[in-house]
Structure formats: structure tokens, C-alpha cells
Amino acid sequence: MSQEWLQSAIQHHQAGRLQEAEALYQQILAQEPNHADALHRLGLVLLQTGRRQEARALLGRAIQIDPSCAQYHCNLGFLLAESGEAEQAIDAFHRALQLRPDLAEACNNLGIVLLSVGRVDEAIAVLQRAVTLQPNYANAHHNLGAALYTKGDLDGSLSAFAKAAQLQPDSPDTLNELGRLLRSKGDLEGAAATFRRAIALAPDLARAHCNLGLLLLLKGEYREGWKEYEWWQRLQGGKLLTALAQLRGRMWDGSELRGRRILLMPMGWGLGDQIQLVRYVPLVQRRGGKIILQCDPPLRRLFQRLDGLHHLITSDQPAPEYDVHCPLIDLPRVFDTNVDTIPAAQQYLHADPSLIESWRNRLTDAGGRLKVGLAWAGRADYCEDRTRTIALTRFTPLLQVPDIWFCSLQKGKAAEQIQTLPADLRPLDWTADLNDLADTAALIHNLDLIIAVDTAVAHLAGALGKPVWMPIPFTPDWRWMLNREDTPWYPTMRLFRQRAMGDWETPIHQIEQSLRSRVRS
């Protein structure tokens, strides 16, 4: 009788009728408390209905009764991974593969967990094993693509995601990832079409809308781009959505403010983004608003010198009373910004005169040489950092140009790379005295030229109206657009582009030649 009940329970389970399945598994266990498969399958039902601890106990009992069943260990590993117990999950998957080396599901799930804990090479190896064992395993190809992307193998990642999309063409998540890879490789039309396919399958997939928006902005199609990128507000599971839900009042729609108080806030965007977007403060003020600007702490002293602020707070402080709010990132959309209407003042941020004078007194050793500031690395935890950061050793041709006084503007761990250079090529390093971006602004004010990758330093130099040269990736961030050496966002910025992915030799060589020409002139 229990076998008939088991078959019926499995049918209910596979059809998604979990209550019926659970009742039948319970009936089996009432008669046979040590029925390992019923324990195991009931555990899966409980896991699906969120009763994780009960599910774990049932899977553990099933394994005690029949420790030789690889599938039991595999599903326990899945539960442990879902519970955040990565090392225990890895042990469970390894046990499953010891029992059944051909269990592709265990390889796939093990690869996911290994990737989550940073063991990228191991993840790639086990995911490649999964797709070898089961070539039509779409999810394993998807996860292999993610692992190869993390490794920096974009060609391999693109191939894996393309295979996953071929096997499972109705997976919006796979199409979204494939679109990102196509964009990185420079196939913008293919990427746009792929994002649109993902959106057609899942109209509420915020990630695909945001990625399409960024792609359209990169192409200069601002109106549709801002509309699509507005979906950032609906990204599920992130702190942005939580923070938005906690705001008082309504989102500002650009209408006349007539003395109302408006909160402008960063919502987790980076320092460079905030520097770029505070250019909109005067436009908001012209709409009659009393502006409460929120910023990250390193920007507080710098932004104190902005005109038109009613109140300035940092992101770790509670906001005073306000009537409406608007994230800084939404201001270009609110003002219907296009390439021709970008607020592009030559200078809209200003360094503190007393700090400028303090730094001027320290730069006397530079003499009549060209004073150049360098920043070569972005924030390491930014998901696209490896495409913009350049090892300092690649700047050696620049550092060998005579009659230049180089000064480091690089903070963080990447600053340690200075010690890898020959002593006679090392830029002067006063960054220990740069406590925030107000100090950095004052130092930049005293320099002749800034050479920086796509970081807050480059934005700061541009906002201060200083000449800034920036090497950028083959497919850059949206704001640098395509096929141009200048940018409408910063009149004093010059862009040096890769000719192909990973090709830093071309922009570095161009910067070197431009430096030599600048010194001669």
C-alpha cells in the first residue's frame, strides 16, 4: 500500500500540489517511520514551503537510514547552501559525488556554492564537469557562464550563456546575462535585442530594464534610456528598495516647488556618481525648492561649498523634515536631459581656499615641471571594476616621460603598487594626508593635469574644471558614450579608448604621446 501512496504522492509533488503530497508522505511515515525515501521527499516538500529546520531534520534522518543514496546528500547540500552554510553544503555535495561521480546536479550545485565563496577555479572545473556529464543541462551552462565571467574569461562566459540560451530560450535571467556579455563585447544591437527578449518574457524583470536603459544611455538615446533605467527603483532584494520604501512624502516629478523642502539623496550610488549629479542642484533651486542634500561622508566638506543648499547631511544621518524627495540618479530623467541639454558648466565644484594654499606650499619642489596627478584603480568591490582598473606598472611609459612631477591620488589597497616600481619612477605619495575629497580637491587644484581611470578622482577633476585624461574600456560606462574623445558631462575631460577588450596599450601609448607633446609645448 505504501508504494501506491508513494507513487501518488510523487505525482502530486511533481504537479505542485504540495499539501496533497505532504499528507500522503505523512501517511506512509505513520506506517513506516523509517521509510527513507518518504522522509527525503517530505523534507523536500517542507523545504519548498519554507519549513527549513524540519526539512533538514528529515533529510538527516533519511541519510542516517540510507547513507549510500547520493541524491539525499545532494538535496541536503542544496538545503545547507540555501541556509548560508556553504562549507557544510560543499561537504554534502562532495559526499554525493563520491557515491555517484556522474551526478551532474551535484556538480552544478557544488559549482554554485564554490563560486559564492570565491573558489572560482574549483567552481569552473566542477561546472565544466556538469556540462560534460549532461551537455543539455541549461542551468549548468548558465552557472558556468557566471563563473567564467568572474574569472574574467568573457569569451568563455559568452559561449556558455549562449549555449544556455539555446537550450532554454524562454529563460529571461539567462537572456539578461547574455545581453550583458554581448554589450561587453561591443555587440550593442545584439545586446539590446537580447534585453528586449528578456523583458518580453518577464515584463517585470527590473535587471533587464536597467541593463537596457544603460545600453541606450551609452548610445546617447537618453529619453528611452532614462525611462528604462528608472526600473532601478524596483530591483528586488536590494537595500535600495528598502530605503525607498522608508522615505516620507512623494517622489518629486519636476514640478514647481514653491518653497517646499526637497531631499536629494545618493541611494547607494558611488562617490563619482554623486559628484557628477550635484550639477543639478542649481536647476532644482530654480524650481523654487529648499534643498536638503544628502551625501556620503567623504563628500561632506567638499559639498559644503555648493551654492543653493538649505541643509547638508551625510548618508549616516537622519534627514530633517522634507516635503518631497528625489534620488540624485533620477535628476537627469526629471529634467528630461539629452546630450544637448546636459548641465555642463566648466566648473561647478570649488576647493577650499585655505586648503588650496596649504597644498600649494607643499608643491614647491615641483619647480617648473608639469604637475600631474595619477589614479589607476577603482573601488575593488564594484562589479565592473576589473574593466576599468589598470595596474600601475602599465603606467611606466608615462612615468618615464621627462620633466614631469608625478603625484599619486590613489587611495586604498591599490596604492601599495607604488612600492613595486623602481624608486626613480615612483610618484610622490601624500595620500595619507587626503582625509576626504575636500583635501583631494585642494591638491588637484594645484596640479596641471590629472590622469585617472573611471573613478571619483576623474569626476572630481572634471567638476573642478581641471584638465583630466581618462583611459576607458572598449565598452565603457554609459556616461562616456561611443566614438568620441570628449564628453558632454565634463568640458575639460579627454577620453582615451581601448581599441579592443583588454587593450590598455593603445590608450596608454596615446596618453604618453600626448604627455610628451604637452611637455614640449
Written overview of the protein:
The chain is α/β, with parallel strands linked by helices and 521 residues long. The protein has 25 helices and ten strands. The strands form two sheets. A five-stranded parallel β-sheet has the order 1-5-2-3-4. Helix 5 packs parallel to helix 7 and helix 10 packs antiparallel against helix 11. The longest helix has 16 residues.
Largest pleated sheet: 5 strands, parallel
- What would you say the CATH architecture of the largest domain is? Alpha Horseshoe
Strand content: 5-15%
Helix count, per DSSP? Answer: 25
Query: Biggest sheet, strands in spatial order?
Result: 1-5-2-3-4
What value does the average pLDDT take? 90
Radius of gyration based on Cα positions: 28 Å
Instruction: Write down the CATH topology of the largest domain.
Output: Serine Threonine Protein Phosphatase 5, Tetratricopeptide repeat
End-to-end span in angstroms?
A: 95 Å
CATH superfamily of the largest domain: Tetratricopeptide repeat domain
CATH domain class name of the largest domain: Mainly Alpha
Spatial shape = globular
Low-confidence stretches: none
How many domains, as an integer? 3
